[in-house]
Amino acid sequence: QVQLVESGGGLVQTGGSLRLSCAATRSIFANSAMGWYRQAPEKQRELVALITSGGSTNYADSVKGRFTVSRDNAQNTVYLQMSSLKPEDTAVYYCNAKLVLPSFVRDYWGQGTQVTVSS
Questions:
Q1: Parallel/antiparallel/unpaired status of strands 77-82 and 18-24
Q2: How far is CA 29 from CA 3, 84, 109, in A?
Q3: Which of 48, 66, 68, 94 is deepest in the core (most CB within 10 A)?
């Protein structure tokens, strides 16, 4: 059974930092692009950061220079280091694994972790 288990959310003041972690099932991690998405109340889920299996990264414009995504292939874990947090970063953050095989593509999601940035 594929699982994505997130941790690291919480309450932080404006300007503070948090690090999110997402531990993925070993069987999918190596062949998956790993992403972090977020969804604020009454807003659509949006991509925050993505890291491919080869290590290439992509960020939403709103977090460039503040957030860093990384992956530890030995630990099957992806991280999102968030710095200089703003109230508008408040959302539920979801880990995503996009498993890409020659004839198969599938998305897996974590349960989400709440990040709240107080002003």
A1: antiparallel
A2: 10, 29, 13
A3: 48
CB 9 within 8 A of CB 113: yes
Neighbours of 46 (CB within 10 A): 12
Q: Say yes or no to pLDDT of 98 above 90.
A: yes
**pLDDT per position as a tens digit, 49-94:** 999 999 999 999 999 999 999 999 999 999 999 999 999 999 999 9
**Length in residues, the chain:** 119
3: Cα within 13 Å, side-chain hemisphere: 4
**Closest alpha carbon to 117 in 44, 15, 42:** 15
Query: What pLDDT is attached to residue 72?
Result: 96
Amino acid 104: pLDDT: 87
